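Dock magnesium ion; give full complex structure.
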Amino acid sequence: MPWWTTALQALWLFLPAYVANMSPVFSAKLAPRWTAPIDGGRLGRDGHPVLGPGKTWRGLAGGALGGGLTALAMAFAAGGIFEDHDFGLGGYDGGPLDDGRERAAAAHASAASPAWAVFLFGAAVGLLALVGDAVKSYFKRRRGVARGRPWVPFDQLDFVVFGLLGALLASPLLTRGWALEAYFGHWLTVVTLLVLTPGLHLLVNIIGHRLRLKDVPW
Ligand code: CTP
Ligand code: MG
């Protein structure tokens, strides 16, 4: 498989995390009165908020829901066209990165991932993406960077590292071997996500700002 196919595939596979990371803007519109902050409004010993009012339970819940629905939609969309990209919904016989490597398909073939498992997998990736965002805010506050101010590159990469952790932790939910092969079968996948995400993130935020969905362009 040419390298750029692997790179494009990485971006596609990470869509549940990208959607989760963008979802707080939408969950804020859907549930404007559910503003309970994760840190309960507490301050750290340094006098700064533990996380700040920008990190809400609503955001976490919306991220999990957004990630789950995205994975489910992707699995059904891929079925029949890109069978290797369907989160194992149609079964699994060797992997999305099966570029001629000999595999004992029979040994690898395993039961298809049920739709609920695909949803839970996406929800785990989405939830962890936003947990990463909150963990970032914890350190951002400790460094004295105020809520909503930019903190490059951590604002852009927090959800990549944790989204991948979510894929790792939730991999047993999917048909055997699928997630590990898809996300960690090729070094280029992780590198692509780390290198391209900050630019994509900035682009999406500028568009969101222009559409008046976001207050600030970062
Ligand atoms: N948001 C939320 N809950 C979350 C994450 C985000 O409600 N867990 C909402 C908040 O309204 C937040 C907005 O989405 O202000 C933008 O998210 P983000 O840029 O991550 O938060 P910031 O306000 O910039 O806070 P921080 O400086 O801590 O990153
Ligand atoms: Mg921000």
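Observed: DSSP finds eight helices and no strands in the chain.
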